[in-house]
Design a protein that fits this description.
The complex is a heterodimer of chains A (about 400) and B (about 450). Helix content of chain A is about 25%, strand content about 30%. With about 400 residues, chain A is α+β, with helices and mostly antiparallel strands. Chain B is an alpha+beta fold and about 450 residues long. The chains are: A alpha+beta (about 400), B alpha+beta (about 450).
Chain lengths: ~400, ~450
């Protein structure tokens, strides 16, 4: 705030104490430089407003928000009545209306089996054995545990994406005769495309970026603010560089999060989300026969549970793990060279806490439930064949 | 062995010293501070009622408060009785309280002692669920200082000689009330033996150590809260106090003047005709105690409405940022830093560029001297009155010893040089000479 009176006073100071003159000039010159820079920014902003660029950006953001609202509406539709919603907000002491979480078993053909997990899983749950369920060793099915109110994003290898509420998938009754013919195909893959992954997206509104990874260790980040146009223009799930590669996972994260990648041969790479490229790029150097088995955003604190195909578990705290400074590394080795040579491979990895539960899929069609605290104690998921995948979930 | 220390409980800074019989040791009780012997008189009490003082308090305050979340909840504050001819009802009163507030920062604790007098005097304050009286606030600060002194000396400290201004208040009753509260606080802190010495007299005792021949000395102790003057005969057996004087004008008043004169327009003052509630908000900016309390939803709503109405929106947005981003402490520090900088250079910047607030004020020494002109006149009058009360002529004063942070302000240096003579002006350590003198008094034990 510069007034003519103040300028007069500055001049008087310089006249009375000449040593103040250069100081005053320096302060004013610095301020002018600062204001000139800001003026430049404002002029650019003005141009963006006049040309309509800024309006377009705001329109995109509005579209994105409308999309989020639509997602939330779909999640809540049919689950909670207006009265339920009102009672939940009006009486904080009242327990939330909970639904049992669901366990999804899905394959690249887009077939999905949905099982209901009890709200308080019994750690001594007996084996669910589905002898008729064929578990191929190549492109095996994957597990996903999610709340029944979750919204799912189906990402196909062509870049096509579709969303649907998890609750719209029919529940499968476990039984010995269960096979893939009883699975539902919510969105059948088109010619030359496969289902790459299922992504829970109910927290999309809170996330800054999608983090896309491929089996061979390539990754890119995509701003969630552009979600409607990304999904409409098939920007997600695409961008594969190697012919034998394909999109493996998509996670949601914040700008200051880290992305964890775990490979079958036992390497872990932690990367700052801020450093990830927006165009797909190799972010972990994998051996010729190696591939990713997990890609997720770990919490700042907690533990990481890694499972090998033999059921052996490795438990690491997240605090001690270092963030990689370069993409040109193999990551931290979590398996010794000897065990790697013996053919030990990771099949799954996930962040976990003591109160969590783990669902394990076995090669012989078995599906088992375990309390994570028990697994920490025993260090093994007993299996009569081999483990295929493990999903971690909280009971509530 | 029980130790007795000298403790200067100042408005802006405090300090502790110990005389071992040979020499004075200023205790470095604030290792995080650039001057470890000087402990900022700042108290930060966390939600679990843990007290922190000095640099640690400042650092913790920033750590806890910058960018934190707020959540206001109504808290019952009392009730109002409505009585009419044919009706009577009671209505509950609620105030909005930030339940996520991690702690409360308190500055200028000594000023509270100066305001204890009268029915409307300052009695204390609520910190979360507890009410702290003025004595409890001061005791909390003194206890921490005592603990640090004991940790440094490795022995328990049982006695203290506390400094006190020549007058806490011009009303004798309030003055003795303030001293009684300070004594009570010291006793609550665990000092078994408590005595007082006037701060300028303490500075004189320290100066006396350097004398080789008797002198008539004027002590000009000009700190953050008061100006204290003592005219004394030092250096011989006829050591005596000729006169004492003082006035409640000092550094914090200059800070307030700078804010009122130069900075209020940055927050919308004089820009347009504001509604009364907005005017009151702007007027609260110089008040370091009031500003942090304004961050309530009602104030936010008023400000947002005023911003939307288009009356000086950028300035009012600055005010909103200042209030709602916990920038008040930083703001007052910037003003104080600018005032200090003007003691050495002719121009400085008052700059606060944080979280959308862009405060830039080029401030010169000439402007500062203009702004505090009326204060300077009053101070000169107090000096002349004290000299007159001493029965001495200015020419009979052999030395003018200046101490306290505000004594470095060139305008007052020039005033003293004009009234006495430039060669008589002696600059003592501005922050430690009173503390050192109190340690000497503690060693001597008896009253002056």
């Amino acid at each position: 705030m510069i007034t003519p009176e103040k300028i007069e006073e500055w001049i008087k100071e310089a006249e009375q104490r000449p040593s103040s003159g250069p100081l005053i000039i320096q302060f004013i010159a610095n301020r002018l430089r600062e204001l000139a820079g800001r003026n430049e920014e404002l002029l650019a902003e003005n141009i963006a407003l006049l040309t309509g660029k800024r309006v377009e950006e705001y329109q995109q953001r509005i579209n994105h928000l409308e999309y989020q609202v639509e997602l939330l509406k779909r999640q809540l539709k049919g689950e909670l009545s207006e009265a339920d919603l009102h009672s939940l907000t009006a009486t904080p002491g009242k327990p939330a209306l909970l639904q049992p979480p669901s366990l999804l078993l899905y394959n690249a053909l887009g077939q999905v089996l949905r099982f209901e997990i009890p709200l308080s899983p019994n750690p001594s749950t007996p084996w669910f054995k589905f002898p008729s369920l064929i578990i191929p060793e190549i492109e095996p099915p994957r597990l996903l545990a999610a709340p029944a109110t979750e919204e799912l994003l189906l990402v196909f290898t062509s870049g096509r994406a579709a969303t649907l509420p998890l609750s719209s998938l029919p529940l499968t009754a476990p039984g010995p005769a269960l096979d893939w013919s009883q699975a539902t195909t919510p969105d059948e893959p088109r010619a030359v495309e496969q289902l790459a992954c299922l992504v829970p997206i109910s927290r999309l509104a809170l996330a800054d970026v999608f983090l896309q990874t491929s089996r061979r260790g390539y990754a890119k980040k995509i701003n969630t603010s552009l979600a409607p146009s990304i999904l409409a223009n098939h920007f997600i799930g695409t961008g594969i560089r190697l012919p034998a590669d394909r999109t493996f996972a998509i996670a949601l994260g914040q700008k200051d999060d880290r992305l964890a990648l775990v490979s079958a041969e036992g390497y872990l790479q932690l990367l700052e989300v801020a450093s990830l490229p927006t165009a797909i790029e190799e972010v972990i150097r994998l051996g010729i026969s190696d591939h990713l088995v997990a890609a997720f955003v770990p919490p700042a604190q907690g533990a990481l549970l890694l499972a090998t195909q033999t059921g052996k578990l490795i438990h690491r705290t997240l605090e001690g793990l270092e963030t990689a400074v370069s993409f040109w590394t193999k990551g931290q080795a979590l398996l010794s060279p000897a065990r790697r040579e013996q053919g030990v491979r990771f099949v799954a990895a996930a962040p976990t806490a003591e109160g969590d539960y783990a669902a394990a899929l076995h090669l012989d069609g078995g599906l088992t439930l375990h309390a994570v605290k028990d697994l920490f104690g025993s260090g093994v998921i007993p299996t009569r064949s081999e483990l295929v995948d493990v999903a971690i979930f909280s009971p509530q | 062995m029980s130790l007795k220390i000298g403790l200067d409980f100042g408005t802006s800074n405090s300090g502790v010293a110990f005389h071992d019989g040979d020499r004075v040791h200023l205790l470095p009780l604030d290792p995080g501070s650039p001057l470890p012997e000087v402990v900022k008189t700042i108290l930060y009490i966390t939600r679990d009622y843990r007290p922190y003082i000095g640099q640690q308090a400042i650092e913790l305050y920033y750590q806890h408060n910058v960018g934190r979340l707020r959540h206001f909840v109504p808290k019952w504050a009392g009730e109002i009785d409505y009585r009419g001819a044919d009706m009577h009802y009671v209505r509950d009163i609620f105030v909005m309280v930030d339940e996520l507030k991690p702690g409360r920062l308190l500055q200028y604790l000594k000023t509270a002692l100066r305001k204890v007098g009268g029915t409307a005097g300052y009695r204390g304050t609520h910190i979360f669920e507890r009410y702290y009286t003025t004595a409890e606030l001061v005791h909390t600060y003194l206890s921490e200082l005592k603990k640090r002194a004991e940790a440094y000396l490795g022995e328990p400290v049982r006695g203290v000689t506390l400094g006190r201004p020549v007058e806490f208040s011009s009303v004798a009753e309030y003055d003795s009330q303030a001293e009684a509260i300070l004594r009570q606080a010291a006793e609550m802190a665990g000092f078994e033996q408590v005595d007082f010495e006037l701060e300028p007299v303490a500075a004189a005792l320290y100066y006396e150590q350097t004398l080789t021949h008797p002198q008539n000395v004027l002590i000009f102790d000009f700190g953050g809260g008061t100006l204290d003057i003592a005219i004394m005969r030092l250096g011989d057996k006829r050591r005596q106090v000729y006169a004492n004087g003082g006035i409640g004008i000092a550094g914090s008043d200059f800070d307030r003047t700078i804010i009122e004169t130069r900075l209020l327009p940055h927050f919308g003052w004089g820009q347009v005709h504001h509604p009364i509630e907005i005017v009151e908000l702007i007027e609260a900016v110089p008040d370091w105690m009031a500003l942090p309390e304004l961050s309530t939803p009602a104030v936010k709503h008023s400000l947002e409405q005023a911003i939307l109405s288009g009356a000086a929106p950028a300035r009012l947005n600055s005010l909103k940022t200042l209030i709602f981003n916990d920038l008040a402490f930083n703001f007052y520090n910037q003003v104080e830093a600018a005032k200090i900088a003007l003691s050495d250079s002719g121009a400085t910047l008052i700059r606060l560029a944080e979280q959308g607030l862009d405060l830039w004020e080029l401030y010169t020494r000439l402007q500062f001297e203009q702004d505090i002109q009326s204060h300077a006149r009053q101070i000169e009058q107090v000096v002349l009155d004290t000299v007159s009360a001493s029965g001495l002529e200015p020419a009979q004063i052999d030395a003018v010893v200046k101490t306290g942070g505000s004594s470095s302000i060139p305008a007052f240096n020039q005033m003293l040089a004009r009234l006495f003579s430039p060669h008589k002006i002696i600059a003592a350590n501005p922050f430690s000479s009173v503390t050192a003198g109190l340690a000497i008094r503690a060693r001597q034990g008896s009253a002056f």
